[in-house]
Amino acid sequence: MRSSSSLHGNCSIRKLSSSISHGSNFRSSFYGFSGHPFPRAAVISQSFKSRHSPVRCAVSFRPCIDIHKGKVKQIVGSTLTDSKEDGSTLVTNFESDKSAAEFAELYRKDGLKGGHVIMLGADPLSQAAAIEALRAYPGGLQVGGGINLDNCLSYIDEGASHVIVTSYVFNNGKMDLQRLKSLVDVVGKQRLILDLSCRKKDHKYAIVTDRWQKFTDVYLDEEVLNFLSGYADEFLVHGVDVEGKKLGIDEDLVALLGKHSPIPVTYAGGVTVMHDLETIKAAGKGRVDVTVGSALDIFGGNLAYTDVVAWHESNRRGIH
Hints:
Structural class: alpha/beta
Number of strands: 15
Largest sheet: 10 strands, mixed
Shape: globular
Oligomer: single chain
Strand order of the largest sheet: 3-2-1-4-5-6-9-13-14-15
Distance between the termini: 22 Å
Helix content: 25-40%
Strand content: 15-25%
């Protein structure tokens, strides 16, 4: 896992102060607050420190383990809803006969850190499978799916390096800053990842929650990324419009992340061939890590997992 010192980006205090003071997007998105939720100096102090660290020099492949009803699966995320648990509209690209722990052991053996275990549902089978994966690779995996203030530390205790949070913070379509502050107080900024997965709406990228079905009124831009970087160690961003469809990446989203994210960020969605990895590397200016799911041969696709691992290793060595 990269430490929080592997950050990038730059922004003046004056600019950040101005954006927080005058950004209508923020004022409309603060759930439960009528004015500035925190003293401005505290926000500036946290964000300022995060943007004055060494620039990252390598792009990493971040592996994944998606769990649904206890099984490792690759699902088209936009078809996963709470209201249709019978699976009548669920599009599953792949279901493995290997356990989540076996995939975790594979990633451990190959030295791949910072992969994410996502529980696509809060059922006991998925929770048990996720915990088995964390125990198989202590400190090497992040975990998300139903994370909240009450259970976040339990996953850390089971071996997760970080917890990944979306819906708990982006609640009822808005950013709930009190919940975000409480999470940081309990689990620590250095162990918190904010999932900012998004979908296009009105030509902008709106953060989505509740299995990517519900739009929030928070849009990804420089202002939002700078602000949230004060409360998280990393960002995880699925391009939901292309995720699981193997139709190519969302290059515009990758470019936005590479340009504006001041902390490590991982992009997921649409990778099909090796060239897509190079496109992400270029569009993200070498600042955006990548997850590959359905396209990998270990998940039923045509892209060789061993080739992606070799690409990852060459990046870590600085070889083109």
